[in-house]
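Recap for those who missed Tuesday's class. We walked through two folding examples back to back. For each one, the amino acid string is listed first and its predicted structure tokens come directly after. Nothing is annotated here on purpose, so try labeling regions yourself before you check the end of the notes.
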Amino acid sequence: MISTYDDIIEYWNYFDGNAWSEYTDIDDRINTDSCSLDWCEQAYGGPRLNEPYLAVNICTYHRLDEVRRNVNILLESKFFDKNKTQFYGHLHIYVTDNGCELSVCDDELIHIQHNRNTGGSGGFQKGLEWIRESKIPFTHVIFMDDDVEFDIETFYRLYLFLCHLKEEYADFPIAGRMFRKDRPYIQYTAAEIWNRGDIRHVGFNLDMRDTANLTFVNENMEAEYGGFWFCCYPMSFAKENDIMPFFIHCDDVEYGLRCGKTPIILNGIQVWHETYEYRQTPIINYYDTRNPLFVNEKYDLLPKTQIMLDIWKDKITDFHVKKDYESEYYTILGMHDFLKGIKWLEKVDSCKKHKRLQNAKICRYKNSVLWRVTQWKLKRKYGFN
């Protein structure tokens, strides 16, 4: 059991329905098919309906300690124990290493490949292609960040839930909750509502020590997608749908909107992850400007009004006043590249593009010229004043 989970062990019953909480010694008691299946029928109110095969799709880049820790937790689970016949062979691990540091591996249940640094989007796509090419009858793909922390219970519960999932819900994604790493008893979000980029978090910042927060814990509140920190998609969708080449950010948004199904939220399926404020850098502003615009344009959500220009200018002005010329530059460039169109995005080499962003020569005078050019193009395209 991981260290962050130790801090909230006293809230274990939060994750449980009555049937599961009575089944406390799951590691010792799920030893045979008959034992676990009998209990599952009690817990889920019916016989086993499905035979799930899960592919865990992980992309990593220079996070060796984190990805090795997470892979080892999975390798020590029932899914890799030949004596646990119900679980064994029903989960495979696919790791795409954009940093080319892990040893390449293509064993029976664990698969590791190298890749250029095409970001999380490109890494997930590479893993997805590998999963599709396998001869294993996968029913679901789990997109999971390399640096999350989790308890293996999440995977058991997800698997057993899928065993009893009714046919009418077979094409629904399942969103994993995200808890904060710095305050591990706080649920940061259960799932997301895009809201044209002004994201709303379902169950935002709920303190799970407060029992009042448990009464509506599985309500989806019209959620639209689950984050790629942990989200399970049916293979019927994943085999036909590629990841948008965003490099980072908004790939999970677009994937969820394209799926168009309200994600299922279930107690006990969650990870711990760093929140946004710990992951912000100047170059992130490029992707956080460009990618939401592409998402909104694709789904006809783009506010093609003066407010679009005003919001962008306000961000630039804020960075300029703070003399944060790096963030200013990347915010301007994000809009500039968005105006090139989605066909440009689909053809761009995201690895080379990111390197050019990293090596950009930035100064306030260059920003001034780029801002004027981009503003002129924006006004010309949308007819702003």
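Example two. Treat it independently of the first, because the proteins are unrelated.
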Amino acid sequence: MSAELPVIAIGFAGATAALAGSLAILGLLFRGVAGPLWWAAGGAILVLVAFCWRWGEPGGWLAFLRNPLFVASLLVQGVGFMRFAGGRGRREVTTIACLVLVLVGNQILLPLGADVRSVITNASLGGAAGLAASLAWGVGVERGQLAARLAGVLAGAAACAFAMRVVVALVGAPLAQAIYDNTVTWIFIVGVEFVFVLWLVCLVALAAGAAAEAARRALARERAEGSHDRLTGALNWRGFYEAADSAFAEAVARDQPMALIILDIDHFHAIVIADGRDTADRLLVALMTLIGAELRGDDLVARLGVDELALLLVATNDIVAVAMAERLSQGVAELDWPALGLAHPATVSMGIAERRIEDPTFHAVERRARSALVAAKQGGRARIETT
């Protein structure tokens, strides 16, 4: 069995290094994703642990390093889980950091016997692995990550193994002699390194999943920005016409009414010149807040131009639309103009059109609403017109 040790050692070291390298690549490619870079650092430390465990002679400096390095690896990975979970797990990470100091102090500073050192070492290792298991499992349950839950199970298994060694050491001979037999110790080391490899597999899967999730969020954000106005958060003209065509087709299929309000801020360019662009932007945002309070779940609101807004009201006739327009006009009149930075109150003009049976497309409704808006402007502004 001992003759096979170098071959197995090379296999474990190679697998561990490959997985740690995969983590490092993922971490570097997706720096914006909280976690992978820390897991990569922890994986790299595990490579050193595997090397020390395989080639460290009893009492040598490599044998000394393996235990603090193992807990340090769990500490770094714990920071990755904490960041991945959005800050939860600070207590676990702090405790693992304390256990690193306990291990170093136990193996360097304290004048203790070998048996006592062994108990402290294995208790520290087991405690750190248990805390890492709790953190990984919590993240897996909270975020629905199977890889994190599996990592928690593996760390829990390692914690149980270290705890068993503590129990055996406390029981004493002859059980202690059996458990620390060279063959049993060899099997224990191989088992722990096997857990190392599976643990890193889970971290690679978790990092890849986190990167994929971040890519999906970025794509969704890019699509949202492509169809929404950045200032007001409303749909832009592209997003509005796509959604409006779908809403029109659905209204026709269900034979439901649909009303469109096109709203324009009166003398908007004069406001920009007199009070500044920032003030004009605040006015637009305040107006959008008033509109948002009126809209229902399926209604649409869009910013079609610099000062032109559109409200598409589904399952709504022009009578209800006029009532909403009147409330909006009253809300604009009651705005706190000095707080917005306006020297004079602003007004809005609105044109309203309801879908008719003979309308072939949404654009027919839009043309009538625009005609009504023009009539409101020509009629003296601060008016509501329907057609």
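Answers for example two:
The chain has two domains: 2-225, 237-386.
The two ends are 92 Å apart (CA to CA).
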